[in-house]
Specification:
The structure holds 3 protein chains of 3 kinds. Chain A is built from 12 helices and 14 strands. By secondary structure, chain A is of the alpha/beta class. A 7-stranded mixed β-sheet of chain A has the order 3-2-4-5-7-6-12, with helices on both faces. In chain A, strand 2 (26-29), helix 2 and strand 3 (54-57) form a beta-alpha-beta unit. A two-stranded antiparallel sheet of chain B has the order 1-4. A two-stranded antiparallel sheet of chain B has the order 2-3. Chain B has a domain at 29-92: Alpha-Beta Plaits, CATH 3.30.70.20. In chain C, 39% of the residues lie in helices and 21% in strands. Chain C has a 6-stranded mixed β-sheet. In chain C, helix 3 links the parallel strand 5 (95-99) and strand 6 (116-120). In chain C, helix 1 (17-30) crosses helix 6, helix 4 (122-130) runs antiparallel to helix 7 and helix 6 (152-162) packs antiparallel against helix 7. The longest helix of chain C is centred in the C-terminal third of the chain and has 16 residues, at 165-180. Chain C is globular and about 40 Å long. The model of chain C has no long low-confidence stretch (mean pLDDT 94). Classes of the chains: A alpha/beta, B alpha+beta, C alpha/beta. Chain A binds chain C through residues 6, 8, 10, 34, 119-121, 141, 170-174, 176-180, 272-276, 278-279, 359, 361-364, and chain C through 21-22, 25-26, 29, 34-39, 41-42, 61-66, 68.
Amino acid sequence: MVAGMVLALNGDEAAAYAVKQCKPDVIAAYPITPQTIIVERLSEFVADGELDAEFISAESEHSALSACIGASAMGARTYTATASQGLALMYEMLFVASSFRLPIVMSVANRALNSPLNIWNDMSDTMGARDCGWIQIYNENAQEVYDFTIQAFRIAEDHGVLLPVMVCHDGFIVSHSTEGVETLSDSEVDSFLPPRDPVYPLDVERPVTIGCVGVPEYYPEIKYQQEVATKKSISKIKEIMNEFNEDFGRNYGIIEEYRMEDAEVAILTIGSASGTAKDAVDEMRTEGKPVGLLKLRLFRPLPVKDLRKALSDVKVVGVVDRHISFGALGGALNMEVRAALYEMKDRPHVMGFPTGLGGRDIRVEHFIKIADELLKIAERDMLEEDYRVVGCRGPGCIGP
Amino acid sequence: MKTWDEVPFAGYILEPGNAESYKTGDWRSRQKPVLSQEKCTFCLLCWIYCPDGAIVRKEDAVEIDYYHCKGCGICSYECPSGAIRMKSELEET
Amino acid sequence: MREMVEVRFHGRGGQGVVTASRLLAEAALLEGKRVQGFPAFGAEREGAPIRAFTRISSNPIRVRSQIYTPDVVVVLDPTVIRAEKVTEGLKDDGWLIANTTKEPEELKAGLATKAKVVTVDATRIALELLGAPRVNTPILGTLVKATQLVKLDSVIKVVKSTFSGRLAEVNIKAVERAYHEAKI
């Protein structure tokens, strides 16, 4: 492949190609559908001598992330990728990576969790890992996967951030779809992403101890320090995105507004469903219905202020989650958006629409049904349900 | 005690070998080893077995480091020449 | 050309259905179009009926659902017509491109569609040239002849860059043969 051109890549290939250009020192991974293509390509790049990296085929995802933690602590630029059950198996090490403040970058090709056994897309995996202290960026298409994989290393390794980053894309829908991806040349990536400058690497000349006991007298101070760092990373992430936009003519933000100018109701999406929702918004607008779309790109840290600002003028928000938080208020995104807006003076009604579970196709028609529901709520100025599942047969759901 | 903005980055310990400053000798609650230099043959078994590195090896003799000794008695148990006797510390307090 | 053209491929696992959807997308990409090429996910089992999709547009493609009202349906395996409703949602002014020994009128008679039907005996072409019933490259030749969605030259370029050496050569021959043998 020649760099700096429009290449035909699927989401996984876009991630692998971006990672290659970011020149990681260590890649430790275990293959799992639908992320497999990423690690296959990377192992090929290493085997063919196109990428000078240590490729560790671990015996499990728990081991893969453990190896990444060790490598990153040594000061190596470190990468891994996983999905679904694999991310679940990494769970305890996710906390270790973020608590150590190690700038590991991980791609996640979002996939449902068993049972019933399901290899298809939803966001049960990363949404379930939302409290692990990782930055989470959700991508709509292969182009975004490519661009944000590169930015993820810059964000993670920035001395004002120093946190691991999950770069998420919808399994199969993005991971296995071939699209045209406008790539950067190797030298453009090099100029945007300088080599990692580790802060306290493990070094026999300057010994440090990482991962010692944090007794109750110190644990809260260390955790609050992490919380402040995570919250503060938002401004740094914006700064880095702006730099990327200026350098390479993109137009990214941590949230993206689509036809929100005079919208009375807004659909809030995350990931690839955003594209389908935009087509639905256009259709609604043709019929004169005041529907807008807000796409959330950065879920961790949650851009609370930006959400409040973007949603201050609408009457109703429909939050489209791609998973269920069982026994609560639909999905995590719905609950968090509601919580973020709660203290606003004229807050909009917020209703959740968990959808696309376990690979159920999300169609333009689904978003039109959602938007119609939101317009009804706007009219009666009252919410009757906290959430309703979309794309499911049976009473109480909007299907099929 | 240090506040969140004063504690080291991510709880790292940046000063190497600072475990030495921790007075584990305070954990000794009942008995302490007492060494008889006359009986000691400098076989160094105590130095090898001490789990806390509290036997200090000198040129031709050993000494007990009471700042770190937890009083477990392993040195006394292992000493083949009966040079280390465990002495009650209860009456000292 | 229509603003966006949606193509649905039907075949069986192992026939290169997904590759066909990708090759078509790549050919259109070469011509500066926006594209998507993707499988109906997770059904990669030898012999099982499977679907794949290609979208081609002059504008950015945002929708990411599967294709329900295709402009073109491509059938790689004649027996899949029994197993799958291949013409479901196919637009009246669309095309059905099928690998079959039947004549177009004969095939159309048994199907509920108003779309134009184009046939080719791609299995014979594939067996003769490739030595295996891998019809994904030849059927693209027929698709191009019928619909002119992309140039024949673009498909050949993509086949050349996807396969190497003799394999590329015979696949290109298969594309060309199926282009010329298309029964419209």
